Amino acid sequence: MSAQTTNSKTEDGETRRDFLYLTAGAFGAVGAGCFAWPFIDSLNPAADTLALATVEVNIAPIEPGQAITVVWQGKPVFIRHRTAEEIEEARSVDVATLRDKQTDEDRVEKPEWLVMVGICTHLGCVPLGQKTTQPKGDFGGWFCPCHGSHYDTAGRIRKGPAPKNLKVPPYKFTNDTTLLIG
Amino acid sequence: MLRLIPILFCFVIAIGAASPAKAAEGEHPPHLHWSFQGMFGSYDKAALQRGYKVYSQVCAACHSMDRVYYRNLTALGYSEAEVKAIAAGFTVTDGPNDEGDMFERPARPSDHMVNPFPNKEAAVYANNGAFPPDMSLLAKARHGGANYIFGVMTGYEEPPVDAELLPGQYWNRYMPGHVIAMAPPLSDGMVSYEDGSPETVAQYASDVAHFLSWASEPTLESRKRTGFKALLFLLVFAGVMYATKKKIWANAH
Amino acid sequence: MASGERASFKNPVVNWIDERLPVFTLMNKEYGVFPTPRNFNYFWNFGAIAMVMLVLMLVTGIVLAMHYTPHADHAFGSVERIMRDVNWGWMIRYLHMNGASFFFIAVYIHIFRGMYYGSYKKPRELLWIFGVLIFLLMMATAFMGYTLPWSQMGGWAATVITNLFSAIPLIGGPLVELLWGGFSVDNPTLNRFFALHYLLPFVIFAVVFLHVWALHITGSNNPLGIEPKGKQDTLPFHPYYTAKDTFGLSIFLILYLLVSFYAPNMFAHPDHFVEFNPMQTPPHIVPEWYFLPFYAILRAITFDIGIPFTEIVFIPAKLGGVIAMFGAVAMLFIMPWLDTHPVKSARFRPQYKLFLLLLVVDFLILGYVGMEPADAMLFGSIKLLYLGQLCTAYYFAYFIVILPWLSRTEKALPLPSSISEAVLNKHKAKPSPEAAA
After folding, report:
1. What is the pLDDT confidence band of residue C437, given thresholds at 50, 70 and 90?
2. Predicted local distance difference test score (pLDDT) of residue A12
3. How many CA atoms lie within 13 A of B11 on its CB side?
4. What is the pLDDT of residues B18-45, one digit of tens each?
C-alpha cells in the first residue's frame, strides 16, 4: 500500500511495469493495424469487378481503315485496322522529333492492328477520329476536341497540350481473329 | 478472476436466450458428419465436384443458382481453363448489340449460373404453381442446412393412409408439413461418377448437400482461418493485459 | 476553463496546441487523473465495452454502406455481393451483424448493473435518462438495420413493426402510409430506413457524449452505492481503469469473435437468407433476440380494456399491446422516481435484490415466450400466452407497485462508513490479491 512496504522492490517493479506498458501498447498497435487492413482492402476492386477486368473482342469483321471502340474496365479502347498507307505514314516519322519518343513498332503487336486506350493524356477527354465522319486532326489519327491535341496514325502526340502518346493497354491475340485485352 | 464468473454466467444466459426458434413441423433430419464442421473444418473438393455434377445434371433443370458465378467454380478445384470450358457449355442471352437486337453467346466465367427459366412466372407456370427456390443460399435458408437437404433428398416415403395428397404432391418425412411438390429427383445410377464413389441416392444427396453448403457460404474456409488468427492474438493480448492490470493494481490494495 | 487550470506537458507541440485549445488538459482531466471509486467490480467494464462496440458498429457500418445498394431490387443481391465478392466483405458483414447482438448484450448487462447498484438514483437521474434514450435509439437503429438486407425476415419485420402504429386511433392509418411512403413496405420504405439507419448511430454517439458528460459531473456510482468521501476512496482513471477496462474488453472481444467467426449465423433465422416476397409471409416470424421480451409484452395484451359486461371499449387489444410495449420502456425512464429508497446498492437491500433478480428471470421468460409461436403450449397443456401475461404483469408490478412499496418499507442493512474502510476490511479478512479487485 505505502511506499515503505514496496521500497525494496521499487526499481525492479518499475522496470517490469514499463515493460508491460510497452508490451501492451505494442500489442494494441499491432492489433489495430491488422484490424484496419481488411477495411482498407475492402475498398479495392471486388472479385466480380476483377472478373470483368479482361475483355475478348472478335476482330474479324473490322475492315482495313475501319475502327471500333470497345469498353474495357470502364474505359473506351480504340481498335483500328490500319491501311498500308497509315502504317507507312506512322513509320516514316523521325522519332527524334516527337514529344514522346516511341517508334510505331513499339506500339503494336501486329502492324495492321493498333490498340489503344482512347483517353487523351492531357485531361482525360475521349479524342475524335474513330468514325469516318469525325475529324482526325492534322496527322490523320485522332483529335481531342477539349484542348486541341492531335495524334497521328500510331496514336502518338504531335501537336497540342497532351504530354504523352495514347496509352497502349496490355493485350494479346489469342488467335487470328480474337483479341484479348487486359 | 472469480469476479468474472457472474458476468460469464450473464453471457451464457443472454446467448442461451438468444438462440432462434425452431421449425414448426417436420421431423428433425438425421445428423451427418460433414467435413466443413468444426473449428478447422473445410470443404471436400471431390465431394464438391460430384455435388456440382449432380446439381448441373439434375437440380439445374428447375432450380436456378444465380448468386453463384462460373468463376467461383475454381474453388471446387477446377483450373481456370476447365472453368472456362464448363461455362462455354452454357448459353446466355446478351445484348443489345449495335443493331439493337439481343443475341446468344456462350457463357463466360464472369456470368452467373444460367437460369433454367427466363423469369419467375415461367418457373412457377412450368412447375404446377410451385416455385423451385433459387439454390444459391438454400443451405442457409433452411433449418438444419446440409442435414435438411440430405433429409429431403432421401426422405421420400409412401404417404400414410389418412394423408390426402393432391396430384403432383409427394410425401416426405423431413419436409415441414410433409407435403412436397417436387417429385423424387434422384434415383440410383442416374449420375455417373468417375472417382468410383457409389452411385446411390444417399451418395448423391450428401454430395449435393455438400455442394450447396459451399454455394451458400463460399468464404467458410478463410473465415475459420482468419478467426483462428484473430482469436490467438486476442488470447495473448488478454494475457498481457491481465498481467499489466495486475501489476498496476498491485499497490492499490 | 481558465488557463491557470491547464496541465503542463513535456511535448512542446502538445503544449502549443493545449495553450490554444486545451483538449489535452480536458482528456487528462476526464480520462487521466479523473477520480474514480477504487472498488469497481467487473460489471463496471460494460460501459467502456458498449462504447467500443458502438465505434465498431460505426466503422463496419460505414464500410458496408459503401458496398450496399438501398433499392428493393438490388438490396438482397448487393448484400450477397458483399458476402461473396467484396474483399473481406463477409468478415465486415458478420462483424456488423453479430456486433449488433453483442452491443445489446453489453448494454443489457450495463443496464442490469445500473439497476442492481442503484446507479439511477439521485443525483444520477439525468445520466440514467440519457442511458435509456440510448437504449431506445439503439432499438430503432437495430430494427431498421434488420430490414436492410431485404430478406423475408427483414421485410416482414418492417411490415409488422410499422403496422404497430396503425393501432393509434384516428391518425394510425395515415401515419403508417407516411412511414411507408406508399401503400405497403416497398422501395421508398427501404430507402428511408437506410437513410435513418445511417443517421441514428451518430445521434446515439451524441447522446453517449451527453451520457458521459453527465457521468463526469456526478462521478461514478460503485458497488457499495456510497459516494467517495475523499482521495482515499478513489483512484485516477488512468492507468487503473484503462488497464482493467482493456482487459475486460479483450475477454468480451474473444467471445464476440468466437461467435462472429465460428457461428456467425447463430442469431440469424433461416428466413434471413430468402429474398423479401411481399406476397408471402413466412410461417413463423420472430424479431431479433434483443426485442423478444418486448415482443412478448406486445402479444400478451389479447383483450380489450373497457367497462366489464358492456360493449364499451376504451382501449382495443391491438392498441393495448402497443401501449404496453412502449410502456415497458417508459418504466425505465421514470424508474428514478419510482424507487426513492435512500440506499442505492442491492448489497444492502436484500428484498430489493430478490425482486430485481426475479425481474431478470421474468425478463428471460418473456424472451422465451416472445420466441415461440403465438399459439404455443407449455408442457403440451398450458397456453404459453398465459405465462407471457403473468410475466408482463410482474414486469409492470415491479415498477409500479414493488419499487414504491419497497421504498417505504424496506429496512436496509448497515452501510460501511466509507469505500476505503470497506475495501481495507475486506482486504484484512481475505488477504488473497485475487479476491480484492
Report:
1. very low
2. 63
3. 17
4. 444 443 456 789 999 999 999 999 999 9
Q: How far apart are CA B47 and CA B35, in angstroms?
A: 10
Task: Say whether both A37 and A64 belong to one domain.
Answer: no
Domains of chain C, residue spans: 32-271, 286-416
**pTM confidence score:** 0.89
Query: What domain range includes position A4?
Result: 1-44
* Minimum Cα–Cα distance from A1: chain B residue: B251
Q: Kindly list the residues from chain B whose CB atom is less than 8 angstroms away from the CB atom of residue A13.
A: 247, 250
Cα distance between residue A10 and residue A8, in whole Å: 6
Chain A, nearest residue to C66 by Cα: A43
B244 Cβ under 8 Å from any chain A Cβ? yes
Do A64 and A147 lie in a common domain?
yes
Q: Looking at B15-29, B46-60, C227-241, which range is the least confident one?
A: B15-29
Please report, for the domain that includes residue A77, its CATH number.
2.102.10.10
**Band of pLDDT at residue C428, cut at 50, 70 and 90:** low
Q: Predicted confidence band at B10 (pLDDT cuts at 50, 70, 90)?
A: low
Could you tell me if A175 and A97 lie in one domain? Answer: yes
DSSP codes of every residue in B187-221: -TTSS--SS----SHHHHHHHHHHHHHHHH-TTHH
Residues A31 and A58 reside in one and the same domain: no
- C239 at interface of B, judged by CB pairs closer than 8 A: yes
Number of domains in chain A: 2
* Percent of chain A whose pLDDT exceeds 70: 92
Is the domain spanning C32-271 CATH 3.30.230.80? The answer is no
The span from the CA of B189 to the CA of B204, in Å, is 9
For residue B157, which of B24, B51, B27 has the smallest C-alpha distance? B27
User: Which amino acid is it at B210?
Assistant: H
Q: What is the pLDDT of residue B28?
A: 87
**3-class DSSP assignment, residue B100:** coil
Quickly count: other Cβ atoms within 10 Å of residue C158's Cβ.
24
Cβ distance A42 to C84 less than 8 Å, yes or no, reads no
Q: Would you say C220 and C125 are in contact if contact means Cβ atoms under 8 Å apart? A: no
Give the ipTM of the model, two decimals please: 0.90
Out of A21, A38, A46, closest to residue C91 by CB: A38
Of B69, B240, B253, the CB nearest to A1: B253
Regarding whether A24 and A101 lie in a shared domain, the answer is no
